[in-house]
Write a structure and sequence with these properties.
The complex is a heterodimer of chains A (494) and B (236). Chain A has 494 residues and is an all-alpha fold. Chain A contains 20 helices and no strands. The two termini of chain A are 22 Å apart. Chain B has one domain: P-loop containing nucleotide triphosphate hydrolases (Rossmann fold, 3-Layer(aba) Sandwich), CATH 3.40.50. Chain B is globular, with a radius of gyration of 18 Å. Classes of the chains: A mainly alpha (494), B alpha/beta (236). Chains A and B meet through helix 10, helix 14 and helix 20 of A and strand 6 and helix 2 of B.
Chain lengths: 494, 236
């Protein structure tokens, strides 16, 4: 049976509409994967001597144990942001004579073969072997420790799914968790309550009593069963439709009338965002990303590299642009045929999308103004970045969008549907960020900061001035791709 | 009103539509019948410029549909549920289509009153999104939306499928009146021979993309159609 599932997965990968695009991305991601593997392997080998040098008096293994909670926390964070729950299209399997348990087990076991689970291995195994072979740590104890650490990371794998299931629909509910996490981190930092220390002691203890490695193994089994029950219970058509009885919201957004001919589309786009889980999350994400500057502006290490602040500026003012814009016109996939047959000129359709995204950049730029606290430079830079986003990045994203032919299913229940929340989503945004950083760096290095600012803002203004002709060009591109797009949108599934 | 010349569509060496010449005069109630794969939806999709013809052209009021978008203001259509926007309520959807066809809210409201019977109290004011309506009710919304803004050409693919018997009868009445009173050109396709013969003045039978019958509807038409479609069964 498992063989059949693997066959299905392979077919859906090869035959999907986005095969060309995802293949290109997959190659890029393979390079990234190789890079990270090499880094982890290097760290795994060099960790012991490195720690010996930094903390000459301490036992490196104990130092590692002391940091282990921090490591696990970051791992969870990264997994939450990047790792996707392996999906298998289960609807068609529901009425076939396939045991539910088989399908659920397949989904869960498949997740173990994720890249994210092999990375820690590259860190743990070389470090463990180094301890045993070079430093004569007792092999049995060390193996127990390694097993405990690795099963713990697998626990994080499954814990992530549970968290992701609970919170992707409702990112607000995550706030208390974040607050508690921050408080614990603060208490730890102030040495009032050292959770990392207690956690480290547990692993010290496991090292001295290697048989105790059974505890994380049991924990892993428990989490597996929890996930299993979670998924098994949702194996019904109506499981994702619980909210159905909720009355439809009838917000009118009538203020959009001011925007004239693009008003109906704006209104409809706002409803799209407001009433569907998938686009709604992009709003919350935008607000969270606004805090990004707090990480970089106060940090001394970045003060010598203003080019880095360009990255922050583009990112903060353009996060909605990146998240929403790269899926134009896929948001409208389920009724794209209607849009094409209705009384809608392509140019107006695109103009309204541009209008919406531009509007979001303006709002986000206004929201970043409090960063003036870190200096006028920062404020001006952010505004220049906003201009650049509006003038250059928006048309670039929409141009890339004309090649989109992968549908986003808005109506699909969120059950096992994390379409596009993976690492590939972030990769598309690279050229949007790299180009302005490069321009800024170049001018800043050879002329000065003010000129670099001017160049970034100027490029944006040129883009804004050229917008009508850019729109005509884009509309022409979209019209050319129309038939391919319609064809692609008809194919459901990834 | 609508003219197709030398029109063909080939999918990987397989000719799914091949129409040498077809002329549909303005104000005609035009019916398209044929078995699955006969090319009915392909023809409508070509007419709406949703797919590209392999050869030939379709002219809608002398506008080449694949080259200009100017046919859109006077042409409306409902092909399938993919023409609906799932996250809107029916009212919002009607207003949205109205906006696109220069009808304000009041226009739409008064337009909708004539469909109160058809909607049977299940569509307006129920605070439900279109995606939560049943297939039949979705179809009603789509068909009514296609009538907004006094279009000159209305294209409906399988309008009778999924509808309850009462609605089928109402819809037949509605479509007949439409071409009579406002001179609208109505193009429908159907698998139900009785419905088509009742509604359409002219019926064209497609078989594997080729026009095999083109007849004015008369008393004898239904019989003729039934004979045509049962000939293969009789032969074997």
């Amino acid at each position: 049976m498992f063989k059949k599932f693997v066959w299905l997965e392979w077919k859906s990968f090869l035959r999907s509409a986005s095969f060309g695009k995802s293949l290109g991305l997959k190659i890029l991601m393979a390079f990234l994967a190789l890079y990270f593997s090499a880094m982890f392997l290097f760290l795994g080998i060099a960790l012991f001597p490195m720690l010996k040098e930094i903390y000459p008096d301490a036992d490196p293994l104990r130092v590692v144990n002391g940091f282990i909670l921090t490591y696990f926390s970051f791992e969870l964070l990264f997994r939450f942001l990047l790792q996707t729950l392996p999906v298998i299209d289960i609807k068609s399997l529901m009425i076939l004579p396939v045991k539910k348990s088989k399908v659920v087990n397949f989904v869960l076991v498949k997740s173990l073969f994720s890249f994210y689970n092999s990375l820690p291995l590259l860190l743990i195994v070389p470090f463990g072997l180094f301890c045993i072979i070079r430093e004569d740590y007792p092999a049995a104890n060390m193996l127990g420790w390694m097993l405990a650490i690795y099963t713990s990371t697998l626990c994080i794998n499954y814990l992530n799914f549970i968290i992701k299931k609970r919170f992707t629909d409702n990112l607000k509910a995550l706030l208390p968790v974040i607050v508690v996490g921050l408080i614990l981190a603060l208490l730890d930092y102030l040495e009032l309550f050292q959770l990392t220390d207690y956690f480290g002691r547990i692993f010290n203890y496991i090292y001295s009593q290697p048989l105790l490695a059974i505890i994380p193994v049991l924990l892993l089994i428990l989490l597996y069963i929890w996930n299993y029950k979670n998924l098994f219970g949702k194996f019904y058509l109506d499981a994702g439709l619980k909210g159905k009885s909720k009355a439809a919201s009838t917000a009118e957004f009538s203020w959009t009338k001011k925007f004239g001919s693009i008003a109906p589309f704006l209104q409809q786009d706002l409803k799209l965002i407001w009433r569907n889980k998938r686009p709604k999350t992009t709003i919350y994400l935008s607000l969270i990303i606004l805090g990004y500057g707090l990480i970089f502006y106060p940090n001394d290490t970045y003060q010598e590299m203003p080019a880095f602040f360009v990255f922050v500026g583009i990112f903060m003012t353009g996060i909605f642009m990146i998240n929403f814009g790269q899926f134009v016109p896929s948001w409208d996939a389920s009724y794209y045929q209607m849009i094409m047959a209705q009384n809608i000129p392509m140019q107006q359709y695109l103009a309204s999308k541009m209008g919406l995204i531009t509007f979001s950049v303006v709002v986000l730029a206004i929201l970043t103004t409090p960063y003036v606290y870190f200096g006028w430079n920062i404020l001006l830079l952010n505004l220049a970045c906003a201009l650049y986003n509006m003038g250059v990045n928006v048309p670039m994203l929409l141009f890339a969008g004309s090649f989109n032919k992968k549908a986003i299913d808005l109506d699909k229940s969120p059950f096992m549907n994390y379409q596009g929340t993976g690492a590939s989503q972030w990769l598309v945004s690279l050229p949007l960020l790299v180009l302005p950083i490069f321009f800024f760096w170049l001018v800043n290095k050879f002329v000065n900061y003010e000129a670099a600012l001017g160049v970034i803002a100027g490029l944006g203004i040129i883009g804004l001035l050229l917008r009508p002709s850019i729109l005509t060009f884009l509309a022409q591109k979209y019209r050319q791709r129309k038939y391919v797009t319609i064809q692609g949108f008809k194919q459901k599934g990834d | 009103m609508i003219t197709a010349t030398n029109l063909s569509k080939v999918y990987s060496g397989n000719k799914v539509l091949d129409i040498e010449h077809l002329d549909i005069p303005s104000g005609q109630n035009f019916g398209l019948v044929g078995n699955n794969g006969a090319g009915k939806t392909t023809f409508f999709s070509l007419l709406l410029d949703l797919i590209q013809p392999t050869t030939g052209n379709i002219f809608n009021n002398e506008i080449t549909v694949s080259q200009s978008e100017d046919w859109k203001p006077f042409t409306s259509s409902f092909i399938d549920e993919s023409f609906l926007i799932g996250y809107l309520t029916p009212e919002e959807y009607f207003y949205f289509i109205g906006d696109l066809r220069n009808r304000n809210k009041a226009d739409i409201d008064s337009f909708l009153t004539q469909f109160e019977d058809l909607f049977n109290g299940e569509i307006i004011g129920r605070k439900k999104y279109l995606r939560d309506l049943s297939k039949g009710n979705q179809k009603k919304v789509g068909i009514v939306a296609a009538l907004i803004g006094d279009p000159e050409v209305v294209i409906l693919d399988e309008p009778f499928a999924n509808l309850d018997p009462t609605t089928q009868i109402r819809l037949k009445k509605l479509l007949k009146e439409l071409s009579k009173t406002s001179g609208t050109t109505v193009l429908i396709s159907s698998h139900d021979l009785i419905h088509v013969t009742e509604v359409c003045e002219r019926i064209v039978v497609l078989d594997k993309g080729i026009i095999v019958r083109d007849m004015e509807t008369s008393e004898a038409t239904l019989n003729e159609l039934e004979q045509y479609f049962s000939r293969e069964i009789a032969e074997s």
